[in-house]
Amino acid sequence: MKPMISLSCLCAALALAGCATPPGPVEVTRFVAPESLARLGQGTIFVETMPGTDGDSLAMAPYKAAVARELAALGYVETDRASASQIAQVGVDGYVIGSNGRRSPVSVGVGGRTGGYGSGVGVGIGINLGGGEKDRLGTELSVRISEAAGGASLWEGRADFSPPEDSPLARGTANAQTVASALFREFPGNNGETIEVKVPE
């Protein structure tokens, strides 16, 4: 059974609007090599969009900002790319889980990334984002931290969250804060371990 970790309250996001259906946990998986541990959580870092994602997308901004805040809280100092000792690349995929349980990749304003995880499941036209009570709007946040010099990977993680489509945590800043906070909970985590981070209702 996956361990369950409580996630601290996300301030006003939940106070402003309730949700009839619980948002569900964030599933987090992280990979870290033992030899990388001493270099993580310190030094300068530059946060950029992961290759294959539209770097100009305004919808990427809250995710990159949320990741940057988490990294600063861990001890990193955000700087420009030329001065950074490490690079954090951020990617976001969106999908819908319909009432039939099928997972359909969609572009929901997160740079148009619709490939990769689940990309062959339920692809179709006319997805009803305002559909029934069981429809869920999912986000998969991926972050890779690597050495600026040489590009050696130090840490990789992904956080997968699929609250009901009408949840206040399904989009925007509240969604970004939720997945980023879960992803970096008890950083760096154990190599290859998947945990579930509970999100308060």
What does it look like?
This is DUF4136 domain-containing protein. Keywords: Signal. Residues 1-17 form the signal peptide. By secondary structure, this protein is of the alpha/beta class. The protein has one domain (4-198): 2-Layer Sandwich (Double Stranded RNA Binding Domain). 15% of the residues lie in helices and 30% in strands. The chain is built from three helices and nine strands. It has helices at residues 12-16, 61-74, 172-183; strands at residues 4-6, 26-32, 44-49, 77-78, 86-97, 103-106, 136-147, 153-161, 194-198. Strands 1, 2, 3, 4, 5, 6, 7, 8 and 9 form a nine-stranded mixed beta sheet that branches. β5 and β6 (103-106) form a beta hairpin. α2 (61-74) packs parallel to α3. The protein is globular and about 45 Å long. The two termini are 22 Å apart. Residues 1-19 and 108-132 have low confidence and may be disordered.
